[in-house]
Specification:
The protein has 189 residues and is of the alpha/beta class. Helices cover 35% and strands 28% of the residues. The strands form 2 sheets. It has a 4-stranded mixed sheet. Strands 1-2 form a two-stranded parallel ribbon.
């Protein structure tokens, strides 16, 4: 396994937490690996940041024929009413409803798509133990929040904290955040 990360600070964090994993600087649009050198390219919570017109041909280049390109996204399971309320309250993250209503045409609509079979989709249910404070800290790391105006972000996080403290499911310490991991997978032709 080779882990790649374009951000030097995140790469340093990866290396400190997983010192036995080979890691190097790199990004999907310019992968520093030889042609047909890997059996799989996996990205977690990241493909929405890629320039797919550049990334797909590059991913196809490094994959062996029959190799897999997959993206994974954790989404909050808004079938649970308090989770749906949190999403409405502060646009906290991508929800299962949003995930299921999306077209997921991330490969078919971009340059390089001829190199890949049609996308397969799967979902895997799980959960994370949280507190109101750890939930708010998690929300602050989501893509939507990372690009927000700092004042707006502070206000939104305070609304999320107040909401979580007002709900019986989340107000008394630790609670389980119901989640789903959505997976999109395509095989290189």
């Amino acid at each position: 396994m080779i882990a790649m990360e374009p951000d030097p600070a995140m790469l340093a964090e990866l290396r400190s937490r997983l010192p036995n994993v080979t890691s190097q600087p790199g990004k999907a649009e310019d992968i520093p690996l030889p042609d047909a050198s890997v059996d799989a390219v996996l990205c977690g919570q990241a493909a929405h940041w890629f320039n797919m017109d550049l990334a797909l041909p590059e991913i196809a280049r490094v994959l062996t024929p029959g190799g897999v390109f997959a993206g994974l996204w954790n989404v909050d399971d808004d079938r649970e009413p308090w989770v749906a309320g949190l999403a409405r309250e502060c646009d906290a993250s991508r929800t299962l409803s949003e995930w299921r209503s999306s077209s997921h045409s991330w490969i078919a609509t971009n340059r390089g798509s001829a190199e890949f079979d049609p996308v397969e989709q799967a979902e895997f249910e799980h959960g994370q133990m949280r507190t109101a404070d750890s939930m708010v800290a998690l929300i602050a790391t989501h893509s939507r929040q990372l690009v927000m105006d700092p004042v707006e972000l502070t206000q939104q996080l305070e609304r999320a904290r107040a909401y979580l403290r007002s709900r019986p499911e989340t107000a008394r310490g630790e609670f389980r955040l119901p989640m789903m991991t959505g997976v999109l997978r395509s095989v290189r032709k």
